[in-house]
Amino acid sequence: MSLSHLKKAGDAIFIDSKVTKANEIISAWNGTEASNFSIIGVPLSKTSISHSGASFAPASIRKMLSSYSTYHIEDQIDLKDYKVTDFGDITMHVTDFEESRNRIRSTISELLGQYKETMPIILGGDHGISFPSISAFAQERGTVGVIQFDAHHDLRNTEDGGRSNGTPFRSLIDEGILKGEHLVQIGIRNFSNSAPYTEFGVNNGVTIYSMRDVRELGISKIIKESINHLVDKVDAIYISLDMDVLDQAFAPGCPAIGPGGMDSQTLLDGICYLASHPKVCGMDIVELDPTIDFRDMTSRIAAHVILNFLVEKVKLLNK
Ligand SMILES: N=CN[C@@H](CCC(=O)O)C(=O)O
Ligand SMILES: [Mn+2]
Ligand SMILES: [Mn+2]
């Protein structure tokens, strides 16, 4: 017997045969092959210094990709002709955070080791996941340079509270995994940091652009300077995007919101300028808590970050 006018629960309410949705180009890893583009979820936010539901972000960002099409009108690129491999989520230990970080480092190392061509977009999680993730890149891709978008330095000491979302870059520098001169921080904000951590950054050769620099110099100049600074020193460039670099008006779904931050178009422009460089080969998106978001605004920006990154990489492939 058949019943008419039924669709599977969860399927889109309306399907337009002339439109491809971004989620349709993503397919689950089949255990053997991976595309040049991949995503992997890292649902760890118990290591956050404030209450955080960022462990729910991988699912929320994936869901928001189904709200947008694959077509970039301005560059006349349609991502529908490309594939993204979804490796799923790394399983976190319930209580042992060191074990969780070890799992993140080893899984991302294995992924990078097995698939030399793939550019993973890592969906956190709180910013603590960048310590093991960037460690994996350093192990597998050579000397790594990092461009960090963030309101915060994340150079806190580990004596006060162990490794957390406030310490990833301190740990990377202290452990000799990342040289201070190979780290560029963009969007650092007033009243969100303290002088000893700015001094630690400056003394270790970190390049720091505050929000005033973003307003006065412009994001295009900042990215050009950052790439010029890194390009001959490193083998690979990794983008670490803390969503709280955005102003609270654009990204309400972050634990550490505040005024005076970046607008979403400036961020998207920055991501595009970076992604158009061949040495940029990986990115994480962190500190997005969908449980405190409004109409998934913050997850929607994350989805657009991914789509813009892919468009620039496709333009490079077609050159
Ligand atoms: N990556 C985030 N760093 C912030 C954390 C803020 C928070 O979770 O409240 C920091 O160190 O201040
Ligand atoms: Mn931050
Ligand atoms: Mn951060």
Automatic annotation (TrEMBL):
InterPro entries: HutG, Ureohydrolase, Ureohydrolase_dom_sf, Ureohydrolase_Mn_BS
Top-rank lineage group of the source organism: Bacteria
Listed EC numbers: 3.5.3.8
Keywords linked to the UniProt accession: Histidine metabolism, Hydrolase, Manganese, Metal-binding
One Pfam family recorded for the sequence: Arginase
CDD domains per UniProt: Agmatinase-like
Residue intervals passing through the bilayer: none
The protein's enzyme class: hydrolase
Family per similarity comment: Belongs to the arginase family.
PANTHER family: ARGINASE/AGMATINASE (PTHR11358), FORMIMIDOYLGLUTAMASE (PTHR11358:SF35)
Record protein name field: Formimidoylglutamase
